[in-house]
Write a structure and sequence with these properties.
alpha/beta, six-stranded mixed beta sheet, five-stranded antiparallel beta sheet, 22 helices, flat
Length: 808
């Protein structure tokens, strides 16, 4: 991409905003170096990564690599045998821990985010290096005694030597004969050796080596002869400790050098991953959408380059998104040159930059602040001439500066380029400037170069109106408030409002009338026509808004009516179910009485007695009761069939949110096929029947209401368990203690089986395998578990156990 145009379009400011969302230095450097690509396949891949990253942020929350460091300079030092210090190893360990955590988080989302999963597969999981650094260096950055046997022995001997040295020095402090000669009863150090502060008047009375004296000369710092050997021994041990620490750090440095290739790849992958997450966070901040990137049309209309620009309600990314006025720029298949006219400070320059930045951001893998469905062709290059090009140093006027940039643009632009020109031909004689602007625009159209040209010259309005491939566009101006509205209108040229503005600001009417007489009558007629066109357009827009409001109101009323009807259906079903339940209880009670009588009759028969007339009548009642029960069962089935929700009143639509009853999870309808509905519920894609889902209905206020559960019809003569809410498809136990994890597993297995789940995933991590074994032992003893297995390669492998339940 043309570097000068990137600056003029303020692309670098977009990158500055992007860098604010990065976590560490490497990704910040990548953001600084980010440039739009002219390769469609690469641009689509970058957009896919950003889309997956946004999904990831919504699914699992923020992922950050804050406090990570770039490992590449450190591995380079290690490869050159430059021993790294302890603090550097701590930074390496922290970075590898962040890498490992990021990789583990992605392991469970490889199916939904395959491209990000491929990227994070390059992240290191530590490879034993984390544990080795932890065993060698403490969190305070000190080499541990356990780092080597020799170091442990040296430090142990140092403690003994230090204790004996102090023991001998304390004898001098505690001995009354020597204590009186000391300035203070303390042990201090000079030149790395332990000494006593001797008063200068007792010099020579305490035999030893003088290492220093106070500034006043009143105190001498003396090392008694009795401790010289112990000081020497301690010094030797300190030197031995230093050498052993250096040896340990050097050995660890060699370990870094051996793994340099993997660590460098980790640093690169972490930077790319963090930059992708930054793009997703920036998109969330802008409320941006993924643009539809497409190649140039291979069979365009005659004279057309095949480019596509359809920006729907696009906003300038550097403006406050809450107040930025969106513009819609949708060019038809026969148009590729736009002549933009309007008043000064009306938003022409901002509109040009909005189009240019949308293209640059889309080709950089950034989502654009626009409405979903916006389409853009992939341009090989974007050229711009925007702003004041005056240069005192180069003795260039504004006009000369523009022409210099224009020469470069026209020299390099071709059919696959986008050209944005602001105030074309300005800064010189209006007649010559207008002629030059028409000539440049004719050249661009002849060369089939997609272009947007902002101008004040009225001659270009007629040129755009009569030239195939070109179209007028304008930015509205409110004459009542004397302020621009910034609304972008394609198809209409901008109006000259100079006289109207002057009149409203109080300029003498005589002067206004005189000025009108100086104008060409045809221009006045054209202005009147533009006034009428704008008036008609505003009326049409108002009519459309009224119709749209009426349509939305009708749809809200229809939804309200449908919700009420469906509520009535549910109430009807509930009443039928209650009646059925009551009848069933009565039948069960009657059956219990009959059973008692039947037992009595059986005892009578066994005793050889003849059945009484009452008992014979009871037998007839029992037979009739069987007939009644069959008839009531048929009625209940009929009521249940009639009580189904009225699907025809509010048919399911693709994209509608529903609740999957069995799993108790929310999903989105992705396809409708006869009696089957395809649902996307998180990572699961399910094909269900209508009775297996519940709809998210609109309540009477028009808001989305929580779906009301409709209990399954009760079977006569069978025990019905109360409904149990689903605990979800996953249970995450990472970091839990064994006793807590065991209790959670038991509760989860019980709830999952009672709620009717067919399977569940228990995440315990890999670690040492202890927690995994405890959990699997618990699973084996749960009677309703049909079988279990380790997670798949993309599910977490041995870090996950998938449990399958048996329902009879």
């Amino acid at each position: 991409m043309n570097p000068k145009s990137l600056i003029l379009l303020e692309y670098h400011k977009v990158l500055e905003r992007l860098k604010a969302f990065t976590s560490f230095s490497s990704s910040t450097a990548l953001a600084t170096a980010l440039r739009p690509t002219a390769n469609l396949e690469k641009a689509l891949a970058l957009q896919t990564l950003t889309r997956e990253a946004r999904f990831l942020l919504v699914t699992i929350g923020n992922i950050s690599f804050e406090c990570a460091v770039d490992l590449r300079p450190l591995t380079d030092q290690a490869l050159h045998s430059m021993t790294l210090d302890a603090q550097v190893f701590l930074a390496i360990r922290n970075t590898l821990q962040l890498s490992r955590d990021g990789k583990r988080q992605m392991e469970n989302h490889g199916e939904e985010c395959p491209n990000l999963a491929a990227l994070t597969a390059r992240l290191s999981d530590g490879g034993g290096l984390i544990d080795q650094i932890t065993r060698t260096i403490s969190d305070r950055g000190e080499v541990l005694d356990s780092a080597s046997t020799a170091l442990g022995h040296i430090r142990s001997e140092m403690k003994v030597t230090h204790a004996r040295l102090f023991e001998r020095l304390e004898r001098f402090i505690n001995d009354p004969r020597s204590a009186r000669m000391l300035q203070e009863t303390l042990i201090t150090t000079r030149n790395g050796r332990y000494v006593l502060p001797l008063r200068s008047e007792f010099k020579g009375q305490l035999k030893g080596l003088v290492h220093d004296q106070s500034s006043s000369g009143a105190t001498l710092f003396v090392e008694p002869i009795a401790v010289v050997e112990w000081n020497n021994k301690l010094k030797e041990l300190e030197l031995a400790e230093r050498d052993e620490v250096l040896r340990v750090l050097h050995a660890l440095t060699l370990r870094i050098a051996d793994d340099a290739e993997n660590l460098n790849a980790t640093s690169e992958a972490m930077a790319e991953f963090d930059l992708t997450l930054a793009k997703a966070k920036y998109a969330e901040h802008l409320h941006a959408v993924e643009p539809v990137l497409c190649p140039f049309n291979p069979k365009p209309a005659e004279g057309h380059p095949g480019s596509i620009i359809q920006l729907i309600r696009a906003r300038h990314p550097l403006l406050d998104q809450s107040i930025a006025v969106p513009i819609s720029v949708e060019l038809d298949p026969e148009t590729f040159a736009v002549v933009l006219t309007g008043p000064n400070t009306g938003g022409k320059t901002v509109s040009l930059k909005t189009v240019g930045l949308a293209v640059l951001m889309a080709q950089s893998g950034l989502q654009i602040p626009a409405q979903s469905g916006s389409k853009l062709s992939l341009f090989k290059d974007v050229f711009a001439d925007i702003g004041d090009e005056q240069s005192i140093e180069q003795s260039l006027s504004t006009f000369s500066g523009h022409i210099t940039q224009l020469v470069k643009v026209l020299r390099h632009a071709d059919q696959n380029s986008l050209v944005l020109l602001d105030e074309l031909g300005a800064g010189t004689d209006p007649q010559e400037g207008s002629a030059l602007a028409r000539a440049v625009l004719s050249y661009l159209i002849e060369k089939k170069i997609t272009c947007f040209v902002a101008t004040h010259y009225p001659e270009l309005k007629l040129f755009a109106h009569t030239t195939p491939g070109a179209i007028n566009a304008s930015l509205e101006f409110d004459l009542e408030t004397l302020r621009p509205t910034y609304h972008f209108v394609v198809g209409l040229p901008g109006r000259s409002n100079a006289l109207a503005i002057a009149e409203r600001l109080g300029l003498d009417s005589q002067i206004i009338d005189s000025a009108r007489q100086e104008l060409d009558p045809t221009e006045l007629h054209a202005e009147d026509l533009l006034d009428e066109i704008n008036r008609q357009r505003n009326m049409a827009e108002a009519s459309y808004q009224a119709a749209e409001a009426a349509r939305l109101e009708a749809e809200a009323l229809r939804n309200k009516a449908n919700a009420r009807l469906e509520q009535l259906d549910r109430e009807k079903a509930n009443l039928a179910e209650k009646a059925e339940s009551r009848a069933q209880r009565e039948l069960d009670a009657l059956r219990e009485e009959l059973e008692d009588l039947r037992k009595a009759m059986s005892r009578v028969r066994q005793s050889g007695q003849k059945a009484s007339p009452e008992q014979e009548a009871l037998r007839e009642v029992e037979d009739k009761l069987d007939v009644i029960e069959d008839r009531e069962e048929k009625k209940a089935r009929k009521v249940r069939r009639q009580a189904k929700p009225r699907g025809e009143l509010s048919p399911l639509k693709v994209g509608e949110k529903v609740l999957v009853r069995k799993l108790n999870v929310e999903g989105v309808v992705t396809a409708l096929s006869g009696d089957e509905i395809e649902i996307q519920a998180g990572p699961l894609r399910l094909r269900l029947r209508p009775m297996e889902i519940e709809r998210k209905l609109k309540d009477e206020s028009g808001e989305t209401a929580e779906p009301k559960k409709v209990e399954a019809p009760k079977s006569l003569g069978k025990t019905i368990l109360p409904g149990v809410a689903s605990p979800g498809l996953e249970l995450d136990l990472r970091g839990e203690r064994a006793d807590v994890a065991t209790e959670k597993v038991r509760n989860y297995l019980e709830q999952a089986w009672l709620s009717g789940l067919l399977f569940g995933r228990i995440i315990h991590g890999k670690g040492t395998g202890t927690l995994r074994q405890i959990i699997r032992d618990e699973i084996k003893h749960f009677p309703q578990v049909k079988h279990w297995e380790s997670g798949g390669e993309k599910e977490g492998g041995e870090g996950v156990t998938v449990v399958f339940f048996e329902h009879r």
